[in-house]
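Q: Is it fine to ask for two folds in a single conversation?
A: Yes, each is treated on its own. Send the first.
Q: Here.
A: Result:
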Amino acid sequence: MTKGLDRTPLTRDFFDRSVLDVAPDLLGRTLVRRTDEGLIEVRITEVEAYAGEADPGSHAFRGRTARNSVMFGPPGHTYVYFTYGMWHCLNLVCGPEGHASGVLLRAGEINAGAALARVRRISARNDKELAKGPARLATALDVDRSLNGSDLFAGPTPAISVLHGTPPPSDQVRSGPRTGVGGDGAHQPWRFWIESDPTVSPYRAHAPRRRKPK
């Protein structure tokens, strides 16, 4: 169990703000994942903001669908999607309700329950790699589509919740383009990370898929 951190739970009002305010403010917070096998905690070190209908990089850019409906609120829920036919990614929905937006959790440091995370992340070379990247983070935390729409404030022991943790000083927060986002959404500096933290994932620019010659 993590010691010396502020274990006060965040409130729903924390998430009922602009995604560009919530995203950097999530850095250093402690995400708690409760499973049947035990508790896992991760200090969030890297995130990306997605601003819904106003953001060409967002799943909700073209409006509400069955897949992205959770992004439209209310705030303080999880949005989990499946990508590349093999990986899940965990997002936290923020407000205001009716306007889709969410924060993708890209990386973090496992501070409690590392033994459970290692079982799920057997390819990790060390503990710094357990949640280094969005798919790795979701895998380490045993997150899949069954948690899509989970309420962070569902009673005293929700499946996922977020504690105050230890936010970094503002001069340690960096921002830049989002990883792998192309087109009109490629250049917004909406990826945020803690400078020099070893769990932050490497940046990769969008690489368009090339069609195979016929």
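Q: Second one now.
A: Result:
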Amino acid sequence: MIASPDRTPLPRNFFDRPILEVAPDLLGRVLVRSTPDGPIALRLTEVEAYDGQNDPGSHAYRGRTPRNDVMFGPPGHVYVYFTYGMWFCMNLVCGPEGRASAVLLRAGEIVEGAELARTRRLSARNDKELAKGPARLATALGVDRALNGTDACAAGDTPLRILTGTPVPRDQVRNGPRTGVAGEGGVHPWRYWIADDPTVSPYRAHVPRRRRS
């Protein structure tokens, strides 16, 4: 049986390209999370690019560490990190092996398995909010550090994979500053989203965290 075009997994060479080519091209693609309770499929509507050691906003800017090691690995793998002591965020590694770059998955539309996603996102007021923001996206899909390093391009059973979906026409793609990024990295217009899509998260400039006295 030949898979329909929109359900065809993206090949590894899709991710083995410059980060600023991959990031906008991920919009409209479908991320499938397989779980014991059933699958959840999400159409990507918002992403952010991070260019490793060339990018002050990237986790890999100061070099390789145990935390960011996956970013230096083969393209098409999943990089999951923990932030603010409470949330997980999910990225897809891009570019050639040994050169760290990744795309943060910021938001998406749940197109399959919404019932399961709702059980993980009880505070969502409607289905448009289920994956509206990177931490919400990871929570809705049940993504945590156990999935760090997962090969999203692997054949056969895999907990995460990326399908071709329906690429978004370039005239529907918008870009602007990344959300919440401080310093020199905050000026890069490397956040990409689908114009007028209700699942896209609102832009927020970086606000320094106050230290407790």
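Q: Anything structural to flag on that second result?
A: Two points. Residues 1-5 have pLDDT under 50 and may be disordered. The longest strand covers residues 38-50.
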